[in-house]
Fold this sequence. Notes:
CATH class of the largest domain: Alpha Beta
Bound molecules: flavin-adenine dinucleotide
Radius of gyration: 24 Å
Distance between the termini: 67 Å
Amino acid sequence: MSKFDCDLFVIGAGSGGVRAARIAAGFGARAMIAENYRVGGTCVIRGCVPKKLLAYAAHYAEDFQDARGYGWSHANPAFSWPELIRNKDREIGRLSSIYSGLLARSGIAILEGTARLIDPHTIEVGERRVSARYVLVATGAHPFRPPLPGIEHAITSNEAFELRQLPGRILIVGGGYVAVEFAGIFAGLGAMVTLSYRGEQILRGFDDDVRSHLHEEMGRKGVRILLRSGVSRIDRRADGVLEVALAGSPEGNLACDAVMVATGRIPNTAGIGLSEIGVELDGEGGVVVDRYCRSSVVSVYAVGDVTNRIALTPVAIREGAAVATTLFGGTSVPVDHADVPSAVFSQPPVGTVGLTQSEALEAFGELEVYRTTFRPLRHTLSGREEYTMMKLIVDAASQRVVGAHMVGSDAPEIIQGVAIAVKAGLTKAQFDSTVGIHPTAAEEFVTLRDKELVHRTETV
Ligand SMILES: Cc1cc2nc3c(=O)[nH]c(=O)nc-3n(C[C@H](O)[C@H](O)[C@H](O)COP(=O)(O)OP(=O)(O)OC[C@H]3O[C@@H](n4cnc5c(N)ncnc54)[C@H](O)[C@@H]3O)c2cc1C
């Protein structure tokens, strides 16, 4: 008989935590899980899933317009934000209960409340204390609110999902993927959107061609993007309108109905006893872990956004499964973070895998870069001025395709397939030997011929 109440205590029933608990239970471990908001976590409740539903909704505006070129005439369709939010809430409620059901059927007890570590093997949730052989911290992250006067008038992505009305004019502060996705959502649904970002270009960390191409396409769809621009204060006028002072921008003051800050996320590690028991945190509060997701305290593991590595759901899920397998499955499984594909569900969307051109240049010194920009067949009849950009980055010496990037319709769906080839280390010749599917945009990835040679210029 074990001296502990359970074998694994998971803090946080989100993407990583739920997967870890279920896999552990599958190996026969006694697992428990604590959740202080809603089972499902960020992805299901206020991240990937509701965001994608809103992005679908936003795209209909263009679809209705584009249909005209295909012979459809239509009355003016009307949009209801409250109905969209109601339907979205119903769906996330359904998904959350599925998650709870999966946990219950695996014999995993769910403790409602905020969990806190008392020592490396003891967790407190409300009045209850539980001892565990291992603890998994899977508490995720929360939106950062920059400390500026009037920040209390701003919303974050959390509140954006629950707005009662669609704002007529919205300022989005930030240039990361959450900012550009919500810019596309609000603009598509009819709001006047301004995006203010203090950097040189949106989507820092992505390939430069992706960044500039998306910037241009978003502009064509009516999103006003202000670069090298920051908010210095927000005031609410008597009539309810928000007055925003924009620093470093010729715009000066901006009047709008909502301000959304999307300026990064902070790991959820404060106040839950981690540093007190000796768990090392990084400069941003993320749990420092090794390749097996083990923290500096041997019984405490951490996965997902709280570790400040790659903040994506499929990565958190992989990490959760790896920890459970390492602890209870008899095999030590490190997590492979190389060539993780990702998407931005902007309008149009982005799909990407592998290295950006500058990362590849740094790594290999000499590259062959294949790039194309074209107007998709669909828009010949729709008349829409929208362009797709696709790019392959090849290491000149080995001929391996080390990066694939796309901005355009269906980019995330297309890149998922290309990611298999990049992960497998295939060469440009192997891409070329694959027959394309015609007529598609995706076939460009196997028919790209014009290359540009790019060399690293060594600084002396
Ligand atoms: C707007 C937005 C859009 C996104 N879109 C995508 C996307 O399209 N694709 C993608 O892959 N990723 C996306 N993400 C990221 C994705 O949601 C996260 O990477 C993922 O949810 C991380 O999973 P996790 O298990 O680390 O944490 P979470 O899913 O955040 O789960 C952590 C859970 O822990 C709970 N918790 C926290 N502290 C405690 C405590 N002390 N006690 C008890 N419970 C606690 C929280 O309530 C939460 O439910 C998006 C994120 C946001 C914010």
